[in-house]
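Final report, Chapter 2: Outcomes

The project's central promise was a pipeline that accepts a single protein chain and returns its three-dimensional structure in a standardized token representation, suitable for archiving and comparison. That pipeline is now operational. To close this chapter, we reproduce one record exactly as it appears in the project archive, with the input sequence first and the structure output second.
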Amino acid sequence: MAADEANATDARAAPIAPLPDHRDVNMPWWQELWRRHAHITTPLRARGLPCDIEFGLSAYIVRVSLPDDSYLIISPPQEPSSDHPPGDPGGWIATREHPDDQTLFEVLYDSAPSGARQRPEARHGGSAQPLIEAIDLRLAQLGLLPHPALPHESPHVHPAQPTPTPPSPDIPGKPDRDPASVYGDALRDLTDRLNAAESHADAAALLHQILEPTDGLLAQLGEFFEAAGEKAKEAEEDDGFDLSYDLADAAAEIRSLGEVLHVAEDRMRALTPLAPAPRLPSTPARAPSLPPRALPSAPLRHMR
């Protein structure tokens, strides 16, 4: 018991890995890329793993430094290049490599859709949680995790440990976020990405994160309210039971909403973009023309 409490205290006190140290960190384009990949970099940095954003063969990648001088490359499919926006690909590939040992090349995770070499994790598509769990498991086996995974982030951690406050996404150029609102901030970022989506296909990919029936936000929100109802029952008071019923009703309504919207992603993807409206002329069609300006008369020439 004492060992569990000590481990929990260490997890709470473990510092998050620092931001990269290069001049691009202060550039708006790099800050936007960092924000779009925060759902990948934040949990890894919480484990003490430094992360950076780089450009790969045809898309941006996350590079993760490991304690043994090897590194992880977490990327969308590079060949052929994808039309998905940065940070929201159709699948993730995570490999471990070493700059001085060319024989070290290990695929930790591959959910990228492909015909010949499709792996079991391909069913997860672009979901980040299974990717982080697979990295957690493999790095723990190799002894390369500076800090253990936090209890709310991995099913492999002892459930009796109290859950520490989750780290908020650390975005350069912006003030630190309140840890109490990190999940609201993450959803707000998703909404911003939806507003900036350049196609209905991109918007459908974002809807997938909300409506996916197993790991999507609505499904997990239903689980959350159901768990909250069970927690309320533990009080063994009348108000606790009444509250548990209200929370159970909320969980049922959320699941019902997911069932109603289960085809919304496909319907969004099938929408045809509207043709751009014709540009109006810069001046009215019947604007009266201005009278011609009188030309100056030529100076008289003196005759001799």
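Archive annotation: Strands lie at 51-55, 60-65, 71-75, 93-97, 105-110.
This record, like all others produced under the grant, will remain available to the consortium after the project formally closes.
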